[in-house]
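Hi, here's the filled form for the chain we discussed.

Project: internal
Contact: R.S.
Residues: 301
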Amino acid sequence: MWQRRVYTRFFRSLLAVGVLAIGLSATDADDLARKTYVVGDSRDQIIATLRASYTTPVCFGDYLEAHAPRFEGVRYGAGGAGCGEYQTLINVKQMDCVTFVENMLALATTSRELHAQWRTADTAHFSDDYLLARFVHHLNAIRYYQGTNCGWESRIHYFTDALRQLAANQLALDVGQFLGEAYTKRISYLSDHKRAFPGIDDWEALGSLESELSSAQRFFVPLSEIYRYEQFAQTGDIVALATDVQGLDVSHVGFMHVENGELYMTHASSKNRKVELKVNFCDYMGRRTTITGLVVYRPVL
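And the returned structure, exactly as it came back:
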């Protein structure tokens, strides 16, 4: 009987050792390298952020408070020069308002997944390649239809559509449906500015998508009634600025911070050309002239 217990412990320990080291095969690592375009030391920064976060899971608002400061001052820009059409851009050295939001959401979602694995495996060790691979998986899920980079046209170009996808995947809640009002708007900005988007070839398919978005019911908090949202705002809310610019759904996006009843915005600023933390929201909105209201989604990570 004692021998059976010894052998049982021995095989369990072998199983644990196998689980403790979680990584990628050489083939998978090569495939990951081909399918990504990494700028500067973005890989190292992402891995360091994940290693600092997956052992202590928190709600998204707390995650943002803890880890957004790592990216304060990062230069503003799309940062995609040199990236192949079928490569996922990995760049935290330069971000615009959309890619900043995408990266923070992907980091938090990846951290949550890793924590579940870490607890199950009992202090598992993840290889750097594995950490990056999981981040890329979650970034693609936010950035592309069906979570797969199949080229420029699989990119979710309209941010309210990306928010809609997050809600469909139960990763975010549309706050506007409770605090705001329904509205529709003709969406056609890409089709109206074809020369600015040379990577798109199938304009017929994009036109069909724009028609669908134009007829879809959406919710926003009108500018004159932001007080409805203020009292329910939470740190980590994704706030997109609805605009009166013809054909465009929203003109800017960032995260809300709430401190002592005051609202602040963390975002990548096109005006100041960098990622900024906790900009006074009332002052910021006072300088905007084309905003009609707020589209608000709350991450449920």
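Let me know if anything looks off before we file it.
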